[in-house]
């Protein structure tokens, strides 16, 4: 699977290569982003990819966006296959999958899908269940030696930007500023990113095309 520690810097480098300027700011309202263009002029359109913060950002305030908490364990052990099962005996919010990241990124043992849970710290008991399920599903991980033979790199938690109504890719005029929304991907942001990005680009082209005719 994707090694995000390599993939995200690659995406940033591609943006820079194509003339983008990357900066950080704190915004109270989505419309304020239009005043931050590197040219000093007001931007023609703002693309909103704020993920989970779409639920709190002024001008968006999409209350259908909630976290879907995912907890994982990263280990050095290698699995012969990428594996997943559709359910577990530990409740509807817990899942089981084993994915090996490319380029030495370790093996990901998961996990959870806890809607509405904002906890950002790993839970030790959940981690133990994750490891036990993984070893039961794939004994080859430890050569049949059990959980104790797992070489843990780290424990991680991610808050996926889940949206009850599905991904939002649409344009909207907000306070006199054109905004193209692209958020709410839940747990499949990497898989869906290229497709939804193409949809967002089409909407940006529509906005810019309308402005060019005025």
UniProtKB/TrEMBL annotation:
Transmembrane segments: none annotated. Its cofactor is FAD. Its main location: other. It comes from the Eukaryota. Keywords: FAD, Flavoprotein, Oxidoreductase, Peroxisome. It catalyses: a D-alpha-amino acid + O2 + H2O = a 2-oxocarboxylate + H2O2 + NH4(+). Residues 2-202 form the FAD dependent oxidoreductase domain. GO terms for biological process: D-amino acid catabolic process. GO terms for cellular component: peroxisomal matrix. Belongs to the DAMOX/DASOX family. This is D-amino-acid oxidase.
